[in-house]
## 1
Amino acid sequence: MSTNFRSALFVLLGLIGTSFFVSCSSSESGGGQEGDVDPEVTGIVLDQTSLTVVLGTSASLKATLQPEGVTGDITWSTSDPTVLAVADGDIQPLKVGEANVAATHGTFTTTCKVTVIEDPTSGTLDPVPEVLQGEDYYVISLDETAFATIESKVTYDLRTDDVDKNFYIWENTLLAGQPSGNNYFGLEEGWMSLVVGSVGWSGAGYNVGSGFGSIDMTPLYNNPEEYYFHVAMKSASASTVYTLIFSDGIAEAKVVMGAGPDGDGVAPYGDFERNGEWQEISIPLTHLHEQGVFYNQAVSNVNIFAFLAGGNSGDTVDVDAVFFYKKKK
């Protein structure tokens, strides 16, 4: 090998080595100044630890690596992908429920509890009637829209399901009526409409069977001055006497609505206008206490509410919006 060739080879190898050294130095420094090194990640935080999202909307979370100024990849995940989806911190609710959204970098993870709820203004009454602005509702009969309006404040839903919660008629003394117009809240939703049969007295009621379990109504006992029973009724018959019957599983109370006493001689508590329009009846729990119905212990397999209608065959019995509740102060 000639001297000139060896010299050229050494020069070429030297140039390659120099290029390789310069390339490696640039990758490690990230193009920064010599000696600049990113600090190590010590943790990760979210801007929120809990979040409520309305179904049909969206929300977002922001994750930050610690200490300040550190950058790095963040992986997002959800504990229940059927409730919500998450990508790059953007949350898309899928159904009502709860899920934890996690942001992860390496061995560091932080989470946010996300609750997905129904739109509170969807399918509800607006404005909300005063009778639905109370608290602690024990609902016996109520349309779906009104129920949705107070659902978060319902302690017991005792509406009929034809399984453990049933509506019954005594010995076929009442027949199915023909609802006309709107319900008590002015909605095109149903209510209980019945017609008095051929006998002098007719009756029906709501029973909650043992399969439902116990009903704890002791708040009504502890604070009777704050609680009321509500029912809406309408009638065009001035002579019909209605008897409302309440039971706590131990005693029974009767509240008569009409111009005179009922068939057992119980004097009327009051009456309502008989003009074929809905009328509101509100009975304080203190009145039931006076008759020995206290709700001072959990009840089961009980006729939670019943009513009698005395009068003429063919008279109508229309009942809606039946519940116990704590009235708004």
## 2
Amino acid sequence: MDKYIAEKAITALEDLIDITMQWKASRHKALDGEITFRYNKKEYHFFAEVKSELRNNQLPKILAQKATYHPLIVIAEYIYPNLKKELRKEGIAYLETNGNTYIKDKDIYFWLDGKKTNPPEEKPGRAFSKTGLRLIFHFLADESLVNMTYREIAKKTGVSFGNINVIMTALRKQGFLIEKDRKTFMLVNKKSLLDTWMMAYRDKLKPSLKIATFRFLKDDEYMQWKKLPLKTGETYWGGEPAADLLTGYLKPGEFTLYTLEKRSDLIKRYRLVPDETGNINVYQKFWEGNEENTIAPPLLIYADLMNTGDRRCIETAQKIYNEYLQDTF
């Protein structure tokens, strides 16, 4: 597959500019391959990492590879725009199978980004419907739920009795849930399940939870956001502000709130102004429990940070993963 993607991307770029490129498998176990190409009678060599689709959770590995293998190029069928921006910022070249490319090293500089393409379509199955994503979140946060009765699961997750059987059956078919014995189930491939959940949550569930975008009434209130008297058990910091409260490592630029409160109450209680260009995004709370807190669960904070594609957010997400999640996954 690596060779197929690399050669498809090379062919696309050779059709766009007068360049000759050659791919070969890498002699380094930590890399997929290497590319040598000639342009203007000069020869260039890049170490290469190949992905079907570059995802946010893969960025830390790419950055680590760049520290040892330079210059580095990422070759993929699709790279999200926010990740392209991060790669350029870090001086990492990229090449998509449609010919879009960014290569900057010594006396060579290409930046072609006019070819439109769409991310590969995923068919994750019924388990990853909006309802399934709600249930899987609870399973990932508390695996003991998979061994409760459907009635107990419904009570603790808010997912209807009938949907639970459908979703758990789908998880079994996809290899994420297995039967240890006649009475006990367990989640397997949990890191893969988490990664799949994060992408589906970003694309499918989270947009449906959006209430509105706001800004603070006064600019100086931005600096005092920690003093905002969130209603315990109803409104929660998520994303960047939640990460700052947990780690002290990230100064938030974008604010995320999850809430059960009405829109009008949010405006009055927290002095918010509806503004589509604002930096406060408010979503409906979708999980059960956590009533004595004003910070979203670490699992959700991690997912929101990883899904930004921003390096600083991803670094902070890794700190949260190491502190709160790694023993689970």
